[in-house]
Amino acid sequence: MLTEIKKLFTKYKSISLYDLSLHFEMEALAMQQMLEIWIKKGKLEKKDLSCLKVSCAGCVKNNCEPSKMIFYERRDL
Predict the structure, then answer these.
(1) Which among 1, 45, 48 has a CA at the least distance from the CA of 21?
(2) CATH class in words for 2-74
């Protein structure tokens, strides 16, 4: 699975937690745990763009899926 994650990040610089969860057919929490391995190795960086950190009235109205607001960006794979 880690090899497949690496392949995706070789192709795309940044991917949302939501998209990763869909791609690998995993719950967001389980996907986050897998990604922590790459974060600890310094290969990925987590970017949280949740409404608590970014002022966007759209999230309040549209009740955004939290996993759509969390992105992982490759640093050096």
Answers:
(1) 1
(2) mainly alpha
What is the H or E stretch that residue 70 is in?
A: strand 70-74
Mean pLDDT over 73-77 rounds to: 82
Contact 45, 71 (CB under 8 A): no
Question: Per residue in 3-42, pLDDT tens?
Answer: 899 899 999 999 999 999 999 999 999 999 999 999 999 9
Are 75 and 47 within 8 A, CB to CB? no
How far is the CA of 55 from the CAs of 8, 11, 21, 52, 76, in angstroms? 30, 30, 25, 7, 30
Domain segments of the chain as ranges: 2-74
Number of residues that make up the chain: 77
